[in-house]
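Project channel, design review

CF: Before we commit to the Thiopseudomonas alkaliphila constructs, I'd like one complete example in the thread so the newer folks can see what an input/output pair looks like. Taking Porin.
RD: sounds good, go ahead.
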Amino acid sequence: MDIKPLARMIALSAAGVALVAPSVAQADFVNDTKADLQMRNLYFNHDIREANKGQSEEWGQGFVLNVQSGFTEGTVGFGLDAVAMLGLRLDGGGKETNRKAGEVDQTRVPGQLFPTKSNGKARSEYSKLGLTAKMRVSETEARIGTLQPKLPILINNDGRLLPQMFEGGQITSKEIDNLTLTGGLINHAVGRSSTNRSGLAVADGSAESNKFWFAGGDWQAMPDLKAQYYFAKLEDYYKQNFLGLNHNWELGEKRSLNTDLRYFRTRATGANDKALGFQNKHTVGGYSKNGKIDNNTWSLAFTYKMDAHALMLGHQRVSTGSNFVQLNQGKTGEGAGGASLYLHTDRLANSFSKAGERTTFVDYTYDFADLGVPGLKAGAAYLRGNNIQVKDKSSAKEWERDLRLDYTVQEGTFKNVTLSYRNATFRSGADKNVDQNRVIVNYTLPLM
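CF: and here is what came back for Porin:
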């Protein structure tokens, strides 16, 4: 493997942090700095059963260098974080459909793990760098620059070789005991398999927005009960209210019952709320009235744990006005596609978030530590959705079966290396049928 791209990535990240170090009080800034190198080797096979242009089959190696500085001394502390990412293609044969030449019958099609070039072939490498300036006063912290949020109304996607990034500002406050308040503004996104900054939209919305406002809080009402409320607004697309309740009931030694309730109310705003939205492409994909966003979605899941067993049972309902939506990239070319949803049903091959969809799901996990094999876990999930609204006003059904296997090495030279296998089978009367396989090796190397 050519080490030059990796060396360049590390040098860029280190230089970004070093720029501010000489000019500030360094005691806490340097002494509290943490750094690690995350490495991921991923083989990805995504086979769309009906497609005549072949399957996506790619293999790559990803590196993510995270450097988190401490804060300077004083009432107001300043710091700088950096993240540098590099993806190397190990195998990614074939090329995307060449529309000019009319090539539609391909054996292998790239584009899932790596950006594609103008000729449709996957790039041999891609990299991205993010810097985040931060300021802290008491228990309140402000961050401006690269963000990777994990909130009910916005989660960065990490389902491929490198994670998705956002650009904007965020404030988090923990001044009140048991209450965390968060708010901010997102302007741009960088897709998981892309280096390009793009505007913001929803799935299939081709007009870009550059303002996504959000605010909310997490209240630990009791040690075993958490309540959440968040509000988000994507300019010219939607405004969304989220309410969540999570309760964990300890039933005795190694036994517990968790209850997780989630509710979203999403309505059109700006251009999407007007007839002009359809003309200007501020629309949502799937079943809707002229591309207008109008959705309520709720889900309830119970997870019972006993010794090495964990069993989840749940149900989710999406109203008929439109598909459930959350933030996505405005441009999906050159590997920029991919978004995560804060839903129990957001799985390997599908999210079960179509208009009218009613989904029942079950998920089982077993930890083999009780059998003398610590680090080994296996699981399976099954989801079935019905009542999906389609254009001819009939309803459709779909289902997904997922299998997973994980093993973390417990000792020796390869201690903490995690090997994972994922398999998904998805069949739908309203979408493309998919078979998917992933083989993943993850390792995080602490540096500081």
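RD: helpful, thanks. The chain has a mean pLDDT of 89.
CF: Residues 30 and 331 are 39 Å apart (CA to CA).
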